[in-house]
Amino acid sequence: MSNPMMKGGAKRGAKNPKKTLTRVIKYAFSNNKLATAFVVFFVLLASVANVTAASRVSVIVKELLAYKDVSLINLWNVVYPNVIFMGCVYLIGSVSSMAYNLIMMYISNNTLRKMRNEMFSKMQNLPLKYFDTHTHGDLMSLYTNDVDTMRQLLSQTIPQLISSFVTIVAVFVFMLIYSATLLFVVLLFIVAVFFVTKFVGSRSAKNYVIHQKALGNLNGFVEEMTEGQKVVKVFCHEQKAREDFKKVNDELNEAGYRANSYAFLLGPITNNIGYLQYVIVALVGVLIMAVGKSETALLSVFVSVSNAAEANRMAVMAGMLVSFLMFARQFNMPVMQVAQQFSSIVMALAGAERIFEMTDEKPEDKGGNVVLTHGECEAGKWAWKRPKADGGFEYIPLMGDIRFNDVVFGYNEDKVILKNISLYAKPGQKIAFVGATGAGKTTITNLINRFYDIQSGEITYDGINIRDINKADLRRSLGIVLQDTHLFTGTVMDNIRYGRLDATDEECIQAAKLANADSFIVHLPEGYQTEIKGDGSNLSQGQRQLLAIARAMVSECPVLILDEATSSIDTRTEKLIEQGMDKLMEGRTVFVIAHRLSTVRNSHAIMVLEQGEIIERGSHDQLIEQKGKYYQLYTGAFELE
Predict the structure, then answer these.
(1) Strands 531-532 vs 478-481: parallel, antiparallel or unpaired
(2) Which residues contact 369 (CB under 8 A, 6 or more apart)?
């Protein structure tokens, strides 16, 4: 089979961060409106409480400096009401902070649960081409690394952004009331922080994109090496595997170092700017006190509260300065926190965009409006239900008559795989495909399933163009056994029943007997209830294929596709399976792909493919008489590659 080239690694990072962040917020909060309202309420309450408590400090300082009698009793009388007030306010702020963080944790978990469900559901509706062009490691990275960055964004970063915004607004208002001059000094440093964050953050963002891609490559490599560990050991390539892993790991390490070095620089730089701002604000405030001038807006507040005399002007200004320094700290802290979380935001938005790219992928076309029915036209019979122009329906018996008419197909438009393929398979016939690897044998069977759509020509099923048949119903009528079998975690019985979920235990056992799987199943520790582990790691390859054949048999499909289904089964077992297959084939169409030509001798027709074209066709005896390519293959004059 000629597969399209795999695209390894992660996709690029967030191309539109604002749009992605808006979508994340809408996605998270639209389905948690009540919880979101509580978050906003508690954030507001926590921010207002912290600012209110800080404003009380100025009152304490002013009163202490204004008191001439500094006895302990008088000091206590001045301090304790304000301390109790501040303690109560800070307590309210702390409880509110805990409350909105707990609620955000609930929103985060609820959102990620919904997101994973939607991701997995969407994955079931994606066309096979999507999985051919994305590595398994990259897809796994969506559910692990990218979802984990989303968790941090929702549970920590977004609450911090909301709290920081409210705090900044509240503190800004208080600082403006206290001193416009000192506020101007603070804003100058905030502008400096902004430009530093933009400069360092942009470089960090670029490197985090590279880091996410390198992480996806590492995941894909580890997944590939884990699956191929047996091959690595057989060919003694452990050292080569170590060297290849070291190269991929070094690329991730280098990308991570570059990304994190910028991110870690941002924290110390912004902190130092904050400390410098604190010192400059204090110096400017002291100069204002030394000059003896105060801003009218500030003084009017204190005069209205305490009716302070001119002699207490210095006490008022000192209290103002202490409170303003606290406000400056409160104003600066959320700005610094947002700046320091820039790298987390970048990673989270890159992960979110990768997730949204997957969920926004165009789902597989469901196909036409012809559906499969059972018993509607005749009791116990399967039929195709096709709408008619007059609004009614016509029922076409499901027979398994499949025909290709001048089919042209290529995975890519510039590379044709199948060239003008024409063939037919009547109900009950066994059609075999023979040819070298890449000749197009498996591709033909993939087209019957509509895993891919053809460029030109027509494929009909019981006289109906398969484009007009609903894909789910089309595939329900087909049983497939692939060369690379896949078993699921569960019992042997569960894996056989996967072919038809409503099959009874008796039907599953009968299918296993037809496939000659029953002989080894009954000798398993718990028979049909034996748990299968790790894709059947506790079974041999031949046993796994026997179970896959039994799974196809229990499906009772009128058409069977066997893609090298007996490649890992010994000759004796293969003979037994052929006997069971003869019973199963009664009234069914079977397509067989096999390298062992002995398994296709009893086929009604054998198609010999070469470079996407049918070069010979006929029964075994007819092809032997022609003494062409099939004859050379059968007699050993030419070997399949």
Answers:
(1) unpaired
(2) 386, 387, 468, 470
- Cα–Cα–Cα angle for 486, 490, 495, nearest 5°? 50
Which phi and psi angles does 493 have, rounded to 5°? -60, -45
pTM (predicted TM-score): 0.67
Range in 70-79, 210-219, 500-509 with the lowest mean pLDDT: 70-79
Q: Which two tokens stand for residue 72?
A: 């302990």
- Give the 3-state secondary structure of residue 510: helix
Integer Cα distance of 514 and 585 in angstroms: 11
The CA distance from 419 to 615, in Å, is: 11
Predicted confidence band of residue 316 (pLDDT cuts 50, 70, 90): low
Residues 6+ apart with CB under 8 A from 521: 492, 512, 527, 528, 530
Alpha helices in 1-135 (DSSP H): 17-29, 33-66, 72-124, 128-132
* Residues in CB range of 548: below 8 A, 6 or more apart: 481, 482, 485, 486, 487, 565
The predicted structure's pLDDT at residue 386: 92
Q: How far apart are CA 480 and CA 564, in angstroms?
A: 11
Residue with tokens 């799987």: 517
Count of CA atoms in the C-beta half-sphere (13 A) of 140: 14
How far is the C-alpha of 553 from the C-alpha of 584, rounded, in Å?
7
Contact at 8 Å (CB) between 434 and 630?
Answer: yes
